[in-house]
Design brief:
single chain, 2 domains, alpha/beta, Dihydrofolate Reductase, subunit A, 22% strand, 7 helices, 5-stranded parallel sheet, 4-stranded mixed sheet, 9 strands
């Protein structure tokens, strides 16, 4: 997981997380994408943040190839309804096809429009997209190092299903107030003990933390 929040815990400012970003956060964002096989994001975040495809530079592509990865990680979108505009940047501003993982109740015309626009569409056997089905669809494509960039509802689902191994959390040196939500949202709480692994601070006040899930036998 990779998230940014304000000092007072807001996950957005002016409706987007990008407004909270800092130079250090953007460098971390780029690095995490470089190391990942796939970038997973919820459809609401795709719409609100106007997501396009990942576009690593030539040096990054070379490093990925040297590690045995594809040169560009695809964006995988989780959506129960396939409510994604086929004319959006997700499909028109990308060098590799996005993966859209949707529920069986998604309207067929939306699914076919995404297929026609070039998406790799996976329809699961449930109305929603269970975490197990999401991870299975990615594993079938040999996408095992998964980076999730939100949003809060998807993070809440992954927490509920104990599918979060690490969290990279940037605290932006900003107070926001207002009605912005938290980085994770779900109907019920899902306490998961985490261990602080790294803390870095930038001169502008940005704090970068990395937390790992405490699991038996894990160092």
């Amino acid at each position: 997981m990779n998230f940014v929040s304000s000092i007072d815990g807001a996950v957005t400012s002016d409706g987007t997380s990008g407004a909270l970003g800092t130079p250090a956060d953007r460098r971390l964002f780029t690095l995490l994408r470089e190391l990942s096989d796939v970038v997973v994001v919820g459809a609401g975040t795709v719409r609100s943040e106007n997501y396009g495809g990942a576009k690593p530079d030539a040096a990054t592509r070379d490093r990925r190839l040297a590690r045995g990865q594809a040169p560009v990680p695809p964006i995988a979108v989780v959506t129960t309804s396939a409510h994604i505009d086929p004319r959006s940047r997700l499909l028109t501003d990308t060098v590799v096809p996005p993966i859209v993982i949707t529920g069986r109740a998604a309207p067929e015309d939306r699914v076919q429009a995404l297929v026609a626009a070039g998406a790799d569409v996976v329809t699961v056997a449930d109305d929603a997209v269970p975490t197990s089905a999401l991870l299975a669809a990615l594993a079938e494509r040999n996408l095992n190092r998964v980076l999730c960039e939100g949003g809060p509802s998807l993070f809440g689902q992954l927490l509920r299903d104990d599918a979060v191994d690490e969290l990279c959390l940037t605290t932006s040196p900003m107070l926001v107030a207002g009605g912005a939500g938290r980085i994770a949202s779900s109907p019920a709480s899902s306490p998961r003990p985490m261990r602080r692994a790294h803390v870095l601070a930038d001169d502008d006040g940005t704090i970068l933390t990395r937390w790992v899930r405490e699991r038996p036998g894990r160092l």
